[in-house]
Amino acid sequence: MGFTVLDHPLIKHKLTMMRKKETSTKDFRQNLDEIAGLMAYEITKDIETQKILIETPLAQSMQERISEEIILVPILRAGLGMVDGIRQLIPTAKIGHIGVYRDEETFEAVEYFNKLPDTIADGYVMVLDPMLATGVSASAVIDMIKAAGAKKIKLVCLVGVMQGIEAVQLKHPDVDIVLAALDEGLNEKNYIVPGLGDAGDRLFGTK
Ligand code: URA
Asked: pTM for the complete prediction?
């Protein structure tokens, strides 16, 4: 599996709005929602479908419907900002939640919340986090999802850097990574540069 950076003018434009430091919480949230929806259209290209026989007003006809359960797993808390945009396109998606924090001494990701649908083993799982920085949280969350039985997993992020991509790929070569933008690198505090700042704070207006 590899990584893909989506190339679409609407995504680029909306991401530019999100990056600007003067963008309000309301506009940041709305653009994140919209980008997530646009990404979902692209990401779900490989969802399995099955043929079913239906009746239109005119004839019987074999048509297709999605045959996999889609499960969204936002990484708390910034990942929550990507849920609604995707759910508008896939209203039947189930939603799990995982929260991890970074231990200041070991730099390891520590789980503080984990609630996943019990059908996760057979689902098509999309892990959501706007920022793929060091890849430590994303890798740990994918570990947890695999421990729950998930086999088909995609990591969906808005902005990422090569360091994070490589860290996830090293531990999880079977996971596809999809991004809206690939940025230059990390600063000394592990923030993505140019990035968009702290996605959680900007989304929820906490700073
Ligand atoms: N998390 C964020 O919210 N922003 C970054 O730049 C990196 C990680």
From this structure: 0.95
105: pLDDT strictly greater than 90? no
Catalytic residue among 84, 102, 143, 176: 102
Nearest CA to ligand 1 atom 3: 198
Instruction: Please report which confidence band the pLDDT of residue 34 belongs to, taking 50, 70 and 90 as the band edges.
Output: very high
84 alpha carbon – ligand 1 mean position (Å): 20
- Residue 138 C-alpha from the chain's centroid: 10
Q: Where are the beta strands (DSSP E) in 17-163?
A: 49-55, 60-66, 70-76, 94-95, 97-102, 109-115, 124-128, 131-132, 152-160
Q: Is 158 in the pocket of ligand 1 (CB under 6 A)?
A: no
Closest atom of ligand 1 to 201 CA is: 3
| Cβ atoms < 10 Å from Cβ of 66 | 14
Q: Does the C-beta of 161 come closer than 6 Å to ligand 1? A: no
Q: Is 102 a catalytic residue?
A: yes
Question: Is 106 tagged catalytic?
Answer: yes
In CATH, the architecture of 3-204 is 3-Layer(aba) Sandwich (3.40)
